[in-house]
């Protein structure tokens, strides 16, 4: 590299819009919680964006986003895009399907478009390395949605494809997707293929790494190839959105049905309602009881065949029927805007389930309500529910707090330790003291 006179290039394209500039640190924290509890490490990270326009991409990109119905950034995109756009190296951790690809593609296009066209002996400008062919192909496909309207060329290379030399000729491709490793095992060695490629790129390059998890083996590599990185992690722990008003009632089993009717009486006129139960039999039982009480109602659970499930969901979405009894699994991902109320008739048995159920309401900026019934026998679930209330800034009812405190005391007296029922223990990239000082 010492012998090469590299042309200067621009890394920082990001201009914060006034709407974001006005956000206070408290508002930014609240917004990050809403974005599935996104966490940021490393200094000087820009605030997360809310709309595509705020990240400063071209009209052509905005049109392509619209064409493919990418209405707004996903949480990882909202935080990673402004960080990468501002020229920073980055580690992005978010589960599969969360939209990591676009999070690095959009800033990458901005970079490429800022540079002069390739000359015959040059290129590519960007290299995307992936561990599998499937991922390489998937990323290339996503890339083409944008590269085509931008007039850029992308080529995907992996062993055994028989790509012609013509295809790989310098001057032709702006972007190269490549599979240099077939397993994490190979990224540990000093002379591994990832390093061989990285070492051939100019030292003042911008480098970003994305993954669903961040295993130890990747940490050493990250230290070698990234400079003062920002780390963005999504889904470490999701939280209930602040538009949902949450109530938790400590109640006896035989008082639940009457309480349910009382709550329904209050909310049913206002919108659609989902009542969650834990088992299929309970869904059908409660359905019958509600019908008897003159509430037109449907039930949705895994025992209903797919065709009927689709039509039930359809009737619920279009408002033909506005009351549904469901199990958690059947209602996963259900997005119904006019849904005003969620009742956890059976208490959710872990944190993520609670958050997922409550998250069926309060969508797209609408106000929602979540009621949860918990019996004294179910005290072991109280800890997770308290945590969910606290993390979303809701008040914890004193009865619930008392129930949990007495349970903890009792467990302690019996010499037992209390484990949280949800299994999350995500470890991110750890900054040591010197990196902390540097990361600015
Ligand atoms: P990951 O890399 O995190 O596994 P992908 O980048 O493959 O996830 O995205 C998952 C799916 O979501 C893809 O089908 C992609 O087209 C779609 N997608 C990505 N971003 C958005 C968005 N902002 N809005 C809607 N759909 C999106």
TrEMBL record:
<feature type="short sequence motif" description="Q motif">
    <location>
        <begin position="50"/>
        <end position="78"/>
    </location>
</feature>
<feature type="domain" description="DEAD-box RNA helicase Q">
    <location>
        <begin position="50"/>
        <end position="78"/>
    </location>
</feature>
<protein>
    <recommendedName>
        <fullName>RNA helicase</fullName>
    </recommendedName>
</protein>
<feature type="domain" description="Helicase C-terminal">
    <location>
        <begin position="243"/>
        <end position="404"/>
    </location>
</feature>
<feature type="domain" description="Helicase ATP-binding">
    <location>
        <begin position="81"/>
        <end position="232"/>
    </location>
</feature>
